[in-house]
């Protein structure tokens, strides 16, 4: 156990391929983490670095010392993780991007792309600074990110399904949290959180990894989508794997 709020997630996933069923929130309040993608008109960020920043920022909020018991973020993050974890990706630029920097959260920059993961809270009580940001319009052209840097944990996107950048950003953020929980990552300052590498593998490699997952192979974390948007319920949208050699 790490002593972080991710311990709740580790207990949910254990070592099996499928997580334990989570009932609706006891208080009836639906909570989500806003994930704000910086998408300026010019220049546009590259798709892969933006997703890598999203994956890193989401888990960075959970590993932040402020999320420890007694910390100013603890209650909000713990309550969110203890329920049905949701993320809502929105895009921002210019003054709107600068405004969200004033809200509690963590900003991560990778390869010229920036994402700020904000403190989770009730979806019907979102600050005006966030609610005015658009959820759609996050499409970016595919890019060629190159080899995975040595030592980087990986998130692999399902090559069988298409997802918008906003949807993919939410999914990779969930994957990074699961991997951090299962690997027992310690509480650290945001600058020390491992930077993720997001890739879309060949179909054959993906199918092999999913077969390994279903067979109970250790070290693979999977995100299975609830199916509310874009993909069918139960779809494995991405896999997270530990650091490369």
Structural topology:
Layout (H helix, E strand, L loop, with lengths): L6 H7 L17 E8 L8 H17 L10 H8 L5 E6 L1 H7 L4 E6 L2 E6 L2 E2 L5 H4 L22 E4 L7 H18 L14 E3 L3 H12 L6 E4 L11 E6 L4
Parallel strand pairs: 1-2, 6-7
Antiparallel strand pairs: 1-4, 1-5, 3-4, 6-9, 8-9
Helix pairs in contact: 1-6, 2-6
Describe this structure in words.
The chain has about 240 residues and is of the alpha+beta class. Helices cover about 30% and strands about 20% of the residues. It has 7 helices and 9 strands; from the N terminus they run αβααβαβββαβαβαββ. It has helices at about 5-15, 45-65, 75-80, 95-100, 130, 165-180, 205-215; strands at about 30-40, 85-90, 105-110, 115-120, 120, 155, 195-200, 220-225, 235-240. The strands form 2 sheets. Strands 1, 2, 3, 4 and 5 form a 5-stranded mixed sheet that branches. Strands 7-6-9-8 form a 4-stranded mixed sheet, with helices on both faces. A hairpin with a 2-residue loop joins strand 3 and strand 4. Helix 1 (about 5-15) crosses helix 6 (about 165-180). The radius of gyration is 17 Å and the shape is globular. It starts with 6 loop residues before the first helix and ends with a strand. About 40% of the residues are buried.
